[in-house]
Amino acid sequence: MQVEEFNQLVDKLKDKMYRLALRVVNNQEEAQDVVQESLIKIWNKREKLAEIENPAAYCMTITRNMGIDKLRGKKMVTTDIDEQYAIKAKSPDPERDLIAKDELSSVMKVVNALPENHRTVIHLRDIEGYTYKEISEITGFSIEKVKVYLHRARTRLRQQLKNRAS
Amino acid sequence: MSTEMNDIIQRYWSGETTQDEEQRLQAYMVSGQVADEHLDMAELFSFYADQKTMTLPEELEMEAIYSSTLSPMDALVEKYLDAATSLDEEAQLRAYLTSEKVADSHRDLIPMFEAFSAEQDTQFDGDLTELERLQIQWSQKPKVRYMFPKVVGVAATLALLMMIAFNFLQEDTSSYKGKYTELQDPEEALALTKDALAFLGKKYDKGTASMKYIKELEKTNVFNFKN
What we know:
heterodimer, A: Rna Polymerase Sigma Factor, Chain: A, Arc Repressor Mutant, subunit A, B: mainly alpha, 4 domains
């Protein structure tokens, strides 16, 4: 695989890889490291990449695995989620911004508190819009297991958001 | 048997039986050899056994269950939570939750979908210099390593072709020279040919003489494979 071809793939995937890494490690700096390390690993295996049926899924799998490795090797340090949303939600109404930001961060706090496999599956489906089959390819879980995790994650998320609201 | 069963039944009603004991009890109750004092209980176990065989009618799809008991949007939300929705249905749900007509019972889902949507905008702005360095290093490497096998292949093919061509041309020009002598005198040539034919004839006679023995052998049926 040539540099141009590889970089096209990277351009298409790097944000998705970053978001997945962020979901797994729950820390911006470490998520950036995970993406960087994953891309280097993929670059070193670029010859294999040409033979793979779904290179995008392969890249996402590597990202998730690197994220999990990073997660195992450290004590859980979570980023301040407000910092993550600090740049977003800019509108002429600062009060509304604040409410919106609070809502988003509280949802993502609940998502990030889910077990890794649950939050990865809900992330891949509800944020990235992958099919059950693609999620199965990325995570290595069976399609049935993907659906079970997704069901549990969504139900738990909704329940916790309801509890917060009341 | 009856005393043992009485003991199990007693403990069954107290909720103290093990799973094994309950299975034994069940087998006893449907065996047709139930003691008179247990007949009233056999009816209950027969009901349980009957319930166990109940299955969901095939024509009754989950879709039908969702829609028969719930409003279409309730059904979609339930289906979503059950992880049974398609991507299209999830897009439909997203559109509904961002519309003005969201039912109160679904409002709790709005922040969830808004957060998911906002999350899609998160972009990677990390450092990729190490990757770029590796790519530059790779691009600047002399291509000999990659060209080498091709160049060697082409050179080997050319060498082989040249050797074949050379051998062919050599053979073409010198194949008869030195090996054979061309006679200029026709009489001498005729005499030589006669000698050669006589030599061949001698060899032929020898060959036909040995055939006689074979014919003799054929008569003895030693080599008669037809039988």
